[in-house]
Structures are given as structure tokens and as C-alpha cells.
């Protein structure tokens, strides 16, 4: 069985065939899908999708760094109230993104710090987004290592040295997605140096579609292509990779 630890199934990209997407995922041996949060505007859609597929779609909650702007404090207040009233599997998707804009980096850092405090208070793992911001993100995590944060670096694209740095800050897995199947991505060389006990599988659907479907909308049924590529790189049987990554996900997210 497989677990898609990062899928935005609730977005409008799936409005026309969400039920069929779920059915294809189940047929492809996907046992659970984790739905990371983005912001207050999309929260209702996330919760509706989770309710429509109970015990299959597991909701997380968080303010995505690219959704941080001048009103980020009110966004956080809304999400924190939801966190108090409802059970979630993780805090996320949270982090820092310096790729799309540097305008609200200070606010992104403040939002990230506050959400790390949620994770510590509620004893939940974090789903971390990092793009063009590793040094700043590592600095914030290292300063708060006493919080004993655990989580996953979603769509990990760093090098082996950066992976080693992260382990000084807490207990962190790395999310492996469709990029691993791209010929010139360079991720394979890093992955080959890391023990498989650190790997989670994810699609980030509808984005980052793996080969051989690159260029199409991504979906959880394609998780098997990522698992297959990982098994080739690590020279381990597919079934072993599926088992290890599923166990890793269950352990991190407390899935029975």
C-alpha cells in the first residue's frame, strides 16, 4: 500500500472528476491521501473534500507562505480557531518561499514561527515548504530546536549537506515526488546517499506530474511511478519501498 503525503485534491483542478480520481487512487493501492492546507479561502473546500472521503483524505491546516500578505495575522487567527475546534493530522503547508516574491519575507518568517508553536503545542508534525529560502528557514528551525519539531520537507530539492543540516533542528523526513523522475533534476544523486527511513512519497497533485505523465494534471494514482523510480535508484524491490515509505508516513503522522 502507498500513502500520498501531499495532495491538493480539494482545488478546482479536480472539481469535474474528484470521485473518479479517488477511485483511480484506490485502484493504484493508495491507502491514504494527506491534504495540506493553503489559507482561509481554501479551507472550506479542503474540509468538504475530507468529509466526502472520510478515513481516506486526511486534513492538515496551515498558511502557505505564498498566501502570506498584509493580512496574515487575521489569516492565522482564523486557522488557529479551526485548529482548536477540529482535529488535523499536521500543521502545513507552512514555510518560506523566496522564489515568487521577496515582498513579504519578514511576514512569512513570523507566520512560520507562529505555526511552529502550534505544532509544538498540539504535538503535530509540520509539512514544510521551502523554495529559494533554505538558509533562512534553517536558521529559524535551528533557533527553535528546543521545540522538538518533527515533520517533512515537502518536495525536497536540497543537497545532501542540507539534508544533514535539517537533522540538527528536529526529526525531519523528506518528501519525494515527481521531480525524482525528471531526467535532469539531479535529485537522484542526493536521494541515493540517504537512508530510506527518511523518505515519504507525495504527488503535490495537481502539480509536479511524474514521468510518463509529465505535462498532464497530476493525481495520486501516479504515486506508483515515483515509488518505482525510488526503488530503481536505491536498488531495492518496489514492494520494500512501498512498505518502508508507508511505515514512515504512518509513524510521522500517527496513522494507525
Please summarize what this structure is.
This protein is of the alpha/beta class and 256 residues long. Helix content is 41%, strand content 15%. Helix 1 links the parallel strand 1 (2-4) and strand 2.
Q: In words, what does this structure look like?
A:
With 256 residues, this protein is of the alpha/beta class. 41% of the residues lie in helices and 15% in strands. The protein has nine helices and eight strands. It has a five-stranded parallel sheet, sandwiched between helices. It has a three-stranded parallel sheet with strand order 1-2-3. Strand 5, helix 5 and strand 6 form a beta-alpha-beta unit. Helix 3 packs parallel to helix 4 (105-122) and helix 8 (223-234) packs across helix 9. The longest helix is centred in the middle third of the chain and has 18 residues, at 105-122. The radius of gyration is 17 Å and the shape is globular. The protein starts with a strand and ends with a helix.
Detail the topology: elements first, then pairings.
Layout: E1 2-4, H1 18-27, E2 30-35, H2 40-52, E3 57-59, H3 72-85, E4 91-97, H4 105-122, E5 126-131, H5 134-143, E6 150-153, H6 160-166, E7 171-176, H7 187-191, E8 199-201, H8 223-234, H9 238-253
Parallel strand pairs: 1-2, 2-3, 4-5, 5-6, 6-7, 7-8
**Tally of extended strands?**
8
Low-pLDDT regions: none
Helix content: 40-55%
β-strand percent reads 5-15%
Give the biggest sheet. Answer: 5 strands, parallel
Q: Span from first to last CA?
A: 14 Å
Radius of gyration, in angstroms, nearest whole number:
17 Å
Helix/strand/pairing category: alpha/beta
Largest sheet: spatial strand order: 4-5-6-7-8
Amino acid at each position: 500500500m502507498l500513502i500520498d503525503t501531499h495532495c491538493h485534491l480539494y482545488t478546482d483542478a479536480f472539481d469535474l472528476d474528484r470521485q473518479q480520481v479517488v477511485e483511480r487512487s484506490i485502484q493504484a493501492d493508495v491507502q491514504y491521501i494527506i491534504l495540506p492546507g493553503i489559507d482561509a479561502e481554501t479551507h472550506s473546500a479542503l474540509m468538504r473534500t475530507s468529509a466526502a472521503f472520510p478515513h481516506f483524505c486526511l486534513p492538515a491546516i496551515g498558511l502557505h507562505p505564498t498566501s502570506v500578505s498584509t493580512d496574515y495575522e487575521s489569516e492565522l487567527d482564523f486557522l488557529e480557531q479551526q485548529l482548536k475546534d477540529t482535529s488535523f493530522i499536521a500543521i502545513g503547508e507552512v514555510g518560506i518561499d523566496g522564489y515568487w516574491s521577496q515582498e513579504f519575507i519578514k511576514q512569512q518568517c513570523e507566520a512560520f514561527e507562529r505555526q511552529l508553536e502550534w505544532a509544538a503545542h498540539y504535538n503535530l508534525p509540520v509539512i514544510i515548504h521551502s523554495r529559494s529560502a533554505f538558509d533562512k528557514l534553517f536558521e529559524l528551525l535551528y533557533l527553535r530546536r528546543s521545540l522538538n519539531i518533527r515533520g517533512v520537507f515537502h518536495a525536497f530539492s536540497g543537497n545532501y549537506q542540507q539534508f544533514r543540516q535539517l537533522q540538527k533542528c528536529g526529526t525531519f523526513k523528506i518528501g519525494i515526488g515527481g521531480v525524482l523522475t525528471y531526467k535532469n533534476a539531479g535529485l537522484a544523486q542526493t536521494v541515493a546517499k540517504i537512508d530510506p527511513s527518511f523518505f515519504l512519497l507525495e504527488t503535490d497533485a495537481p502539480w509536479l506530474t511524474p514521468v510518463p505523465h509529465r505535462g498532464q494534471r497530476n493525481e495520486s494514482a501516479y504515486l506508483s511511478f515515483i515509488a518505482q523510480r525510488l526503488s530503481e535508484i536505491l536498488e531495492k524491490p518496489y514492494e520494500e519501498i512501498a512498505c518502508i515509505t508507508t511505515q514512515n508516513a504512518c509513524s510521522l503522522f500517527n496513522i494507525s
